[in-house]
Design a protein that fits this description.
It is a single chain. The chain is α/β, with parallel strands linked by helices and 297 residues long. The chain has two domains: 7-249, TIM Barrel (Alpha-Beta Barrel); 250-297, Urease, subunit C, domain 1 (Roll), CATH 2.30.40. The protein contains eleven helices and nine strands. The strands form two sheets. Strands 1-2-3-4-5-6 form a six-stranded parallel β-sheet. It has a three-stranded antiparallel β-sheet with strand order 7-8-9, with no helix packed on it. The longest helix is centred in the first third of the chain and has 18 residues, at 66-83. The chain is globular and about 75 Å long.
Length: 297
């Protein structure tokens, strides 16, 4: 959102319409360099919302000063209320334990009653907070009912770079967020770009990394792990009315070649089929493995 002509954003608007029968695209009016790091940045974000963006973005920890970071959080909530949009803030994506914009975002969302429309992405600093502050923070998080997105592959790769040893994992408190009953999902926000060159959009790979790094691998947790890249994500994107297998809902789904969720997670299975509006977008041919057991004769 630093281009005054919003060239990239206009292209995304066209793609959203062009590909609507294949994929649902939600566009975030996101100021990559910070809403107040350049003149008129907040005005560009608002212009994008007026033109049809689905979501207000912000990156408060990236602003030049803490006060400007706080200002950007206030502005994102103000715009979300004004235009009736969702919020997705890249929030505290840093190892700095003094980066505490999550608290402000949750508080403002609570006051406005828009917690279920509000998402705090990354929140890596949450993993670096001392427990006294983290436990205190949980109170407003629970009251606000905001959503969380963790990006395990990116967070593991990017964070902890200023550490020698011990070196932090860089991930938010996934297990604690889950145990508290808050909504959190896994995602990948980089596809072969400078932030994460190995990104390919394979959420089963993201899930595999996430459950290891977050240490959520009990049998019960693994039975429910697929929720982190399915049910919980649908709630975050506010598409639950269309989500799930039920009469009258769109026939949009994927299939996994496994008998149980546990088996799918353990075997890191690929997507076998993808169906959109009752039509196959693709079908994966069964894998053929040739063996030679003649040496047993």
């Amino acid at each position: 959102m630093t281009d005054p002509n919003l060239t990239g954003f206009r292209a995304l608007l066209e793609l959203r319409d062009e590909l609507k029968d294949i994929v649902t695209i939600q566009i975030v009016a996101f100021p990559q360099e910070g809403m107040y790091s350049y003149k008129g940045g907040d005005k560009l974000v608002e212009k994008a919302l007026d033109m049809g963006a689905d979501c207000v973005g912000a990156i408060p920890h990236f602003e030049f000063a803490r006060e400007l970071g706080e200002k950007s959080v206030h502005k994102s909530v103000e715009l979300a209320v004004k235009y009736d949009k969702m919020i997705d803030v890249h929030c505290d994506e840093t190892d700095d334990p003094q980066s505490r914009f999550l608290e402000l975002l949750a508080t403002l969302a609570y006051f406005e009653g828009i917690g279920e429309k509000t998402t705090a992405s990354h929140t890596c600093a949450f993993g670096s907070y001392d427990n006294a502050y983290a436990f205190k923070l949980m109170k407003i998080l629970l009251l606000s009912k905001i959503n969380f997105i963790a990006c395990p592959t990116e967070n593991i790769y990017l964070q902890g770079r200023f550490d020698t040893y011990p070196k932090r994992r860089g991930l938010t408190r996934v297990k604690e967020i889950l145990d508290a009953g808050l909504n959190i999902c896994f995602a990948q926000d980089s596809i072969q770009d400078p932030w994460y060159p190995a990104g390919n959009g394979n959420l089963m790979n993201v899930l595999d990394n996430g459950i290891h790094a977050a240490q959520i691998m009990s049998f019960e947790e693994m039975d429910n792990a697929l929720d982190l890249i399915s049910v919980n994500g649908a709630k975050t994107l506010m598409v639950t009315d269309e989500y799930g297998i039920d009469v009258g809902k769109p026939a949009n789904f994927i299939t996994l070649n496994a008998k149980t969720p546990f088996e799918a997670v353990v075997n890191r299975v690929n997507v076998a089929d993808s169906v959109r509006n009752g039509k196959f977008l693709f079908r994966r041919a069964p894998e053929i493995i040739e063996t030679d057991v003649s040496f047993l004769a």
